[in-house]
Amino acid sequence: MSTAPVASAPVSTARPSRLTIWAGWTMILIAVAHTAVFARLAPWASWFAGDLRDRTADSDSVATFWALPGGFVVVLVLLGLLVARAGRQGQHVPAYVGWGLLAWGAAGVSLIGPSGFLSAAIPSALLIAAHITARRRSTRRH
Questions:
Q1: Which of 16, 55, 81, 90 is most exposed by smallest CB count within 10 Å?
Q2: Residue 136's pLDDT band (boundaries 50, 70, 90)?
Q3: Range of the domain at 56
């Protein structure tokens, strides 16, 4: 057993960023809703049997795979958790994260029409608004 001190993250005294926290939780909600819609359509048994590896899966099965574990769901949950944590610590993510999410959602809508991609506008707007608000506060202090 080691007696070396354990390094811990510095405690932030900054006020939590509610807009950033909500953006993170909205991303998580979108990923969970997406999973709830598509998980019942997934041919889980054939996937675990190896249909994706041996290329015997049909195109619907492959598309469903890319809509669930192979797609954005896991990454969006992880990004949402990271963003929410930053917000709780009073930090803000760069505005390009919000603009990037907005561009991704817009590209999805332009390719397949009105769909769940429209929901990307919510966390995008929250992140952009959080960045603008933080910038205004920092210019008032100086």
A1: 55
A2: confident
A3: 18-141
